[in-house]
Design brief:
Length: about 260
Amino acid sequence: MEPSDRVQLPAGFENVDKNILAELIADMMDRLLAHNDQIPLSPESLTRFHSRSAPSISVLQYLERIVKFTNVENACLLITLHYIDQICARIPTFTVSSLTCHRFLITSVALSSKALSDIMCQNKTYAKVGGIPMEELNMLEREFLRMIDWRLITTREVLQEYYVNLVRTHSKGKYIIVGAQSSSSVSSDSDMDYESSRPASPSSSLTAVGTNVHNQDWAPHELSSILINTTTLSPEPLHPPTVEQNMAFQAFQQSSGMG
C-alpha cells in the first residue's frame, strides 16, 4: 500500500482513536496467538487464565467491548503489551494463547486502570464486560499481580515505542504515523511514574512479544522481547507441576477430547 493511501494517525499514542488502537493491538495479538496456539499444552503451564476452550468472541471484538463499556484509557490498553513482555520474561512457562488471552486482557485492563487512571470501573463492571464471575476476576487479579511482581507502571516512552511498532508492523499496513515520536525524541516529562531502568532499543517487529517463553534455550540474560532488558528481571525458577495442575490438566484433556 502506498504511503499516500494509508490512514494518518497522531504522533502520540494518547491522541489516537481508541478503536483504532484496539484494532492495532488485536492485529498483533492475533499473530501472537497463531504462533502460540501451536505450542503443546503441558501441566506445568496451566494457570488460572486458562479456559477449557477458546472463547467464540475474537480478540478485536473483545477489545472493542472493553473500550465501549469501560471507557478505558489508551495507556491502559497499550500497557497490556508491556505486561505480556514482563510476565513472559519472568515466567517462561506462561503462554498467551487463545485459551488465556481474553482473561489476561480483562485482568490487565482492570489493574492498569486502577494503577494509571483517575477514574475506573468497579470489578463487577469489568467482570460483566469480560464475561466472567466477579469472584474469578478477583482471583485473576491476585494471580496477575504475583506474576508481574506488582510492577504495574512504566514510562510514556515505552508505551510510545509499542504504539509506533504496532503501526509499523500492522499486517495490512494501512496506517502511518507522520513524524512519529520514539523514545529518543519524546520528552521525559510525563504524568506517569518512571521505573529506574531504561528500556532496551526495540526490534523492528512486534512478533517477538510473548514468544520468548517457547525457546527451550531461554536464559535470563538474553534480550528476547522487544522493549525490555531481561537482565533487569528476576525469572521465577522452574518447578514441576503441582498436584492441582496435574488434576486440572487431566480434566482439561477429558473435556477437550484430548485424552
